[in-house]
Amino acid sequence: MAGLDFRRRRMFSVYAVVILLVICCCVLSACDADRGVFDVSGDTVSEPTHFIAKLMYQLNDNIKVFGWTVIAFTVILKLVLSPLDIWQKVISRRNAKAMERMRPQLEALAEKCGDDKQRYQQEQMALYKKEKYSMVGACLPSLVTIIVFIVLFAGFREMVGYQFAQDYKSAHNVFQTSVNRQLEEEWGVTDISLVDKTAENAEKYQNMISVAQDEVYKFYFAPEQKEARGFLWIHNVFVSDSWVEGVPDYLVVSGQSGFAMSRITGVMKDEYELVMHKVIGAEEAGWGKGAKWNGWLLLPVFSVALSFLSQKLLTKSQGAPPPSPNGKSGDSMQANMKMMQYFMPIMIGVFALFYSAAFALYTFTSSLVAIVFQLVFTLVGKILDKREASGKGKFATGRR
């Protein structure tokens, strides 16, 4: 640390705080082993405890289609966080204007000081203080944004697990109700363990199971169920918009496969596959041969593209970095800005590709709203600049 200049030490401290807080959030989430685990062995499934999941399900009670619920939730969240976003943009705009004023002085100072970095840094910091140029202020909202992203991911994660549990529990109830009815009508018993499973009754028993599975199929793909679970080209928004099946298998719902999914407990693999036998891989569950694709990979592609565009607009609004002691544009800060410009889209792309389509829809909508907001803010800033320049021109003309 002693060999680093002031600017690098300050940036290093900011990044260290960001990384520390991200690690703390991840560790705290991982330590809560009970969060996102739903037991389906009882009569009902316990409701999610994460406040984000609760808010989205309450909102979905009115909207009914979960894809639109995610969009509405994202827009509401962006409006709630808009003061923070405005604060960040105001600071970035103020810094950019201050840098425009200071750049000639900084370039002259860098040429004057030559290799005397200590003198350059002292006079640079004095100029920053005079012009109220803040290197840390614009980073704090970004820090909050990262924390919000992690909190939201945890909420969506729990929401996915709860929906998996709800889907299976409802299907199991339909299956069990059908079996009980057939037992009473065809066998004259109320307990499947009392069924005579001799060879001559094997076909009759299999027919009973098949009828129950057909009723599960009709329930799972009923128009109101498909409408609530699907969105545009996506069959199931709780599964990723990719090459995975629209109906999750046992490994996915039990948390043994997939990407950071919540999981259900209280059901064995054989029982799950028995109940969901005609639903998994059904034609209505996905696209392509064997219904293997839940979506067309559009949301991951759109999410990455919009996130990159959003980062590019944000970087452009922040202006060029301050000159380094050799008189050229700050190489280290420029590298840091480029790193963030590519890091966020890549991270969002990974989540959008391997996590639920609902979360990908959130990242897509969030980036789209951010772009619109940035364009409006930039337009307003240009109008204010023109008015300010016009006012100064009139003042100067009046004095002459």
Topology summary:
Elements: H1 6-31, E1 37-39, H2 51-63, H3 66-80, H4 82-113, H5 117-131, H6 139-187, H7 202-220, H8 223-229, H9 250-253, E2 263-265, H10 269-275, H11 298-317, H12 331-354, H13 357-399
Parallel strand pairs: 1-2
Helix pairs in contact: 1-6, 2-3, 2-6, 3-13, 4-5, 4-6, 6-7, 11-12, 11-13, 12-13
Rough shape?
A: elongated
SS summary, helix count: 13
Look at the helices and sheets and give the structural class. mainly alpha
- Oligomeric form: single chain
Structurally, the number of domains stands at: 1
Strand order of the largest sheet: 1-2
Note the main sheet: 2 strands, parallel
Instruction: Give me the count of strands.
Output: 2
Unreliable spans:
1-6, 27-33, 327-331
Strand content: under 5%
> Over the alpha carbons, how many angstroms does the gyration radius reach?
29 Å
State the helical fraction: 55-70%
Helix and strand sequence: HEHHHHHHHHEHHHH
On the 0 to 100 scale, the average pLDDT is 77
N/C terminus separation: 54 Å
Could you give a short description of this structure?
By secondary structure, the chain is mostly helical.
Describe the structure.
This protein is an all-alpha fold and 400 residues long. The protein has one domain (1-400). 68% of the residues lie in helices and 2% in strands. It contains 13 helices and 2 strands, in the order H-E-H-H-H-H-H-H-H-H-E-H-H-H-H. It has helices at residues 6-31, 51-63, 66-80, 82-113, 117-131, 139-187, 202-220, 223-229, 250-253, 269-275, 298-317, 331-354, 357-399, and strands at 37-39, 263-265. A two-stranded parallel sheet has the order 1-2. Residues 1-6, 27-33 and 327-331 have low confidence and may be disordered.
